[in-house]
Amino acid sequence: MRETGVKYSLLKKCRPAVLRFWLWLIAGLLWSGVGIVLCIMACYWLSLIVWPGKAIGVLLGFGGGFIVYRYGFSKIARKNIERIAVQPEKVCLFAFQAWRSYLLILFMVFLGYTLRHSHISLLVLAVIYACVGTGLLLSSCLYYEQLL
């Protein structure tokens, strides 16, 4: 029994604890960063497509991103913000996402890799990346709003 207490104490000492403020900032920066990267990739692929496919891709991709934001990522971000708000003042650095959200992240990375290495047209790929990137970028603003 004593050995378990020692292990727990050691884990607690090694846990990277930060103030809640940093969790909101880290989450916002990560969501923004991934959103920007995905949008840049989508823009590059759209630049390789001829007109009118380019216009259709921009409208569907970035327009669809507002829908992804409104009905998907904004809800996840708000839940994360509320979850962080009820945490103790100092909390584990990795608590900016719920643990099950890390599984979603792994799935999305795997899905992105699979899509990029499939035979899907650049237009479809650009639309998907623009939708997700725009949704993430817009949702990251909720974290910054919480900071202010």
- Following the backbone from N to C, one meets helices and strands in this order, namely HEHHEHH
Nearest-angstrom radius of gyration?
19 Å
Structural class, please?
mainly alpha
Question: CA-to-CA gap between the ends?
Answer: 46 Å
Give me the number of helical elements. 5
Mean pLDDT: 86
Question: Which helices and strands appear, and what pairs or packs with what?
Answer:
Elements: H1 2-14, E1 17-19, H2 20-47, H3 53-85, E2 90-92, H4 99-116, H5 122-147
Antiparallel strand pairs: 1-2
Helix pairs in contact: 2-3, 2-5, 3-5
Summary of the model, kept short:
With 148 residues, the protein is mostly helical.
Task: Report on this structure.
The chain is mainly alpha-helical. The protein has 5 helices and 2 strands; from the N terminus they run H-E-H-H-E-H-H. Helix 2 packs antiparallel against helix 3 and helix 3 packs parallel to helix 5.
